[in-house]
Specification:
Blueprint: H1 4-23, H2 38-47, E1 59-62, H3 65-77, E2 89-92, H4 93-96
Parallel strand pairs: 1-2
Length: about 100
């Protein structure tokens, strides 16, 4: 069993890796285990886009409907409902195909 003192450095390292993944130039591939924050990272990268209307959209794709719903909800709660609408796509791999 880990103690809180052991968990804090692990959490700090994970958050540092998430920040690095958000800052890397696109396209990017991030391999991570379940619960590592992949949905958080991809949503934050999407939220960093400029407020002006983009000519090209982005596709945020997940294997699960839960992650899809979280990404859309986070965009809306951040006041960026424009990132949930066309030309962007937030959905599952099945619905994308």
């Amino acid at each position: 069993m880990t103690t809180p003192e052991q968990t804090d450095p692990v959490r700090a390292d994970a958050e540092e890796q998430q920040q690095a993944a958000m800052a890397v130039a696109a396209p990017a591939y991030v391999a991570a285990c379940p619960g590592a924050g992949k949905t958080h990272v991809i949503t934050n990268r999407h939220l960093q886009s400029p407020r002006r209307r983009l000519r090209k959209g982005r596709a945020l794709i997940s294997f699960t409907r839960v992650a899809r719903d979280q990404m859309a909800r986070r965009c809306r709660s951040a006041g960026r409902a424009d990132l949930v609408q066309a030309p962007h796509f937030i959905g599952t791999l099945d619905s994308f195909l």
